[in-house]
């Protein structure tokens, strides 16, 4: 089982419970998978207060709709149906269940003992999903579940192709505004149609830097795909920040309002969000004002965490990868920059 499901999600459940429902008697309970040792439970429980304090230090506008504490539950290929509990067969009267589902079965012992079975490999969807995404799966769930297993690869390929063909240029109404002057969206992204908007497109094709600048209002950076793109983001961020700073520094045109930067990537949730985070930290101070060119600025982990927290609050569907965030941190805090 991945650490994200066995440890990270349970930690977040308890942290959110204590932050959102501090007076609830069940909020402090930490639930971990039964295969973890008591010493692991004690170690993780000791870290919870510091995590809660770190969350509160971000000073986010947290939601207030949660009425019962969150509780993680784990579903694997070896799981047995959960017994019903409580009067009338009601399940989880005291908690909101958070289902942690993994395609990997749990292995006790070494992989050699299990005839080469690699624990956790099934959770890397790039190895088996054939491009299937949650959105495509749920849009065609009945058709997929009814198809014979041998027909699934061809069916998935067909559905993924149909989904891609339906994607059109996102309209301004579909942009996700992360800050007053920075928005994100998915590709494809047409050239801007107003003089107060500039576009930064992060494409999956690998292109040389000298070909990135398409116009004074359009930068198209070819970073490649997946983890390679996240790593290449580090090297591209100086150019993106310089491009956006030059555009924003011109100020608004007469009567047109503040200038806007729109960043797009293939999903609209990973690289574009990472680039937007870097732009927010590098170009704007804590009051949302554009930094003075050449002015010395100090970038800290606390600053990046606070800006990322604000972005995730504005756009909960955002999902910047660890590699993307590492590139942003490296760009902002590397003394060699």
TrEMBL record:
GO terms for biological process: charged-tRNA amino acid modification. Residues 1-160 form the Rit1 N-terminal domain. GO terms for molecular function: tRNA adenosine(64)-2'-O-ribosylphosphate transferase activity. InterPro entries: Rit1 (IPR007306), Rit1_DUSP-like (IPR033421), Rit1_N (IPR033449). Keywords: Transferase. Residues 218-332 form the Rit1 DUSP-like domain. It comes from Tolypocladium paradoxum. PANTHER family: TRNA A64-2'-O-RIBOSYLPHOSPHATE TRANSFERASE. GO terms for cellular component: cytoplasm. This is tRNA A64-2'-O-ribosylphosphate transferase. Pfam families: Init_tRNA_PT, Rit1_C.
């Amino acid at each position: 089982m991945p650490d994200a499901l066995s440890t990270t999600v349970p930690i977040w459940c308890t942290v959110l419970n204590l932050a959102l429902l501090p007076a609830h008697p069940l909020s402090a309970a930490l639930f971990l998978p039964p295969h973890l040792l008591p010493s692991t439970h004690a170690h993780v429980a000791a870290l919870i207060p510091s995590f809660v304090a770190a969350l509160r230090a971000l000073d986010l506008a947290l939601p207030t709709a949660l009425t019962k504490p969150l509780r993680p539950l784990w579903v694997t290929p070896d799981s047995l149906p959960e017994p019903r509990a409580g009067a009338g067969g009601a399940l989880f009267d005291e908690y909101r269940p958070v289902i942690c589902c993994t395609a990997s079965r749990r292995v006790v012992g070494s992989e050699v003992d299990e005839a080469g079975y690699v624990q956790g490999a099934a959770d890397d969807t790039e190895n088996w999903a054939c491009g299937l995404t949650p959105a495509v799966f749920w849009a065609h769930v009945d058709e997929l579940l009814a198809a014979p297993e041998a027909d699934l690869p061809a069916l998935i390929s067909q559905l993924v192709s149909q989904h891609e063909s339906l994607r059109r240029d996102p309209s301004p109404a579909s942009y996700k505004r992360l800050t007053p002057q920075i928005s994100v969206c998915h590709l494809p992204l047409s050239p801007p149609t107003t003089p107060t908007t500039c576009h930064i497109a992060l494409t999956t094709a690998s292109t040389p830097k000298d070909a990135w600048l398409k116009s004074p209002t359009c930068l198209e950076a070819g970073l490649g795909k997946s983890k390679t793109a996240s790593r290449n983001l580090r090297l591209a961020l100086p150019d993106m920040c310089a491009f956006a700073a030059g555009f924003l520094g011109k100020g608004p045109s007469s009567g047109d309002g503040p200038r806007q930067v729109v960043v797009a990537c293939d999903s609209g949730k990973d690289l574009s969000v990472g680039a937007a985070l870097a732009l927010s930290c590098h170009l704007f101070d804590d009051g949302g004002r554009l930094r003075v060119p050449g002015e010395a600025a100090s970038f800290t982990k606390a600053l990046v965490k606070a800006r990322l927290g604000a972005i995730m609050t504005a756009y909960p569907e955002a999902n910047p990868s660890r590699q993307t965030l590492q590139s942003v941190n490296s760009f902002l805090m590397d003394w060699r920059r």
